[in-house]
């Protein structure tokens, strides 16, 4: 299933075999990572984030450039236990997903593509499996707070393939962050998107505006490109950290099978 999913994080290209421990990090990569961490607000502040919630309004386009309409998405994440919940409303792209990184399992409610109403789900909860499970696993593994403190994440390799580019490899994937040498904030990230698990594509996220919450800089306005084609732009973003989220909240299946989004 295609998703406008990479609104904050852009999953990246395979750089080592899945399940293999990557080679050691390189000093030049770690130096750039630490500059990026300082620009974002500091590694200690990032590591202290226990939960996170973001609600966005995004504009989306088809690969041929035709507008698809607005998408509203709510992302909720917890560090421990490591879980993520996605609720999204969009034309032919309305869904709910929950994934528990500790158990490696979760569930989803997919969009109903068979009815005229383009904003409805199927009304059925199904266990994550196959490409859908891989999408959820990669989404959680590539979450920003994991990448931003990659030097504290076991099994992660940090290198620099080019000037002002820091590469982060983890769980058989890699993300390249191109940094602004004036601020050391990311200008863009690049890799391979699994938004459509059956068709991985080259993806790039361009960061166009930032906000500060709890002393940490977060990208707000950002644009998502697949194979060089612009597919989405976040127009508005509301970010909260330290919300006090619970696993029970995130794992709760909606009684009406509809995404749980603030009104």
Task: Give the helices and strands, then pairings.
Blueprint: H1 27-40, H2 43-48, E1 51-61, E2 67-78, E3 83-89, E4 95-100, E5 105-109, E6 126-127, H3 130-141, H4 144-148, E7 157-162, E8 165-170, E9 173-179, E10 186-193, E11 201-207, E12 210-213, E13 216-219, E14 222-226, E15 229-241, H5 247-251
Antiparallel strand pairs: 1-2, 1-15, 2-3, 3-4, 4-5, 5-6, 7-8, 8-9, 9-10, 10-11, 11-14, 12-13, 14-15
Please give a quick description of this structure.
This protein has 263 residues and is α+β, with helices and mostly antiparallel strands. It has 5 helices and 15 strands.
Structural class: alpha+beta
Number of strands: 15
The spatial strand order of the largest sheet comes to: 6-5-4-3-2-1-15-14-11-10-9-8-7
**What integer value in Å does the Rg equal?**
18 Å
Major β-sheet profile:
13 strands, antiparallel
Mean pLDDT: 89
The proportion of residues forming helix, as a percent range, comes to 10-25%
Q: What is the beta-strand fraction? A: 35-45%
- Shape, please? globular
Examine the coordinates and then state which fold CATH places here, giving the name of the CATH topology. Answer: outer membrane lipoprotein receptor (LolB), chain A
Architecture, CATH level 2? Clam
Low-confidence stretches: 4-19
Distance between the termini: 26 Å
Number of domains: 1
What order do the helices and strands follow?
Answer: HHEEEEEEHHEEEEEEEEEH
Query: Quick one: CATH class?
Result: Mainly Beta
Number of helices: 5
